[in-house]
Amino acid sequence: MAYDVKAAFSVAASSLVLAFSIGLATTPTTAHAVVVAGDPNDFVVPAGTGLDGVVRYHTYSGGKAKTKCNGALLKGGRRVLTAAHCLTDSKGQVDRDQVSVFFDLPGQTVQTPRTGKFTIHPNWNGDLQHGYDIAVIELESEAPEGADRYEIYRGNDEIGRTGEVVGYGRSGNGNDGAQRSSDIKKHAAKNRLGALPDDFLGVFSNFDDTSPGTQLGFDFDNGDEKNDAFGLYIDEPDLGLGEEEGIFAVGDSGGPTFLDGQVAGIHSYLITNPQRPGRETSDIDEFHNASFGEIAFDTRVSVLAEWIDSFETEQPTADPGEDTVDVADVPAPGMLLLLGFCLAIFTSIRPKNT
Ligand SMILES: [Ca+2]
Ligand SMILES: [Ca+2]
Ligand SMILES: [Ca+2]
Question: Dihedral of CA 312/318/322/327: which sign?
């Protein structure tokens, strides 16, 4: 039966609530990562298995710890690709002055000295759907030898392909959504890249100013048609990858999605249309919690390759020589309590006429 989704979900003028750098003053440090269709424990990534270049980092402002985010170490071993919103306010203005990167390697964690050298994409304006949510951090010295380095994905055939979604953020099962935890674990799961932001023009509000082709969308499927977000909203049905399916969550911002072992996406934001009486939605529940039926968008790396390459061909601006410091320099627990998660989420996107 044909169903005119776009007519039913035409442009709405309702405003979004964005939560940047969610402060969790009473919650200990962040947790697992990537919400999955199966048992989260089956998706923990051990050190030494090729994903040691997926890093976590802390941001600081005026010496105070602010948020935690993720990134991917680029081929040169000196720079980390991440999301711009980890380092700016909601208007796109830089409001962090330092970051410190952690490499979890077999048997040890290496924390780099704090650096203030990071660059936000010039087109980033704080509007997630507009796109360009990408930044490059320059380390003070080369990353530890054992950390994996990654090429960026340069093809334009991402849609329809299966990516590997990685991060240190909250984990859980898609029936319940992301759960808080005090463990720091890296998780990885899969999802099929299924949409561009252009596909949501006229479907959800606030895509009006999107930059076509600059993001990669994927939905969190449980195999049930009624929770197939892309099937419902943009008439692109696909029931997902069974137990291998996953989506990123709070705390995964800046982490990578890989295609062929290359960085194809950088985790940017989630959207959903939580259950309300009388509302047609794919979301399995009434919360914006990275559950089944929600949608994720990565910044699309391939279309920004030239900008990323411009850093890799530059000589580092720092004096190499300062070596990395060990895990003893991790901020004390009291300080970690102030660290928030870093993921921009919409609490509600309300299609018109529902
Ligand atoms: Ca999917
Ligand atoms: Ca789907
Ligand atoms: Ca939900």
Answer: negative
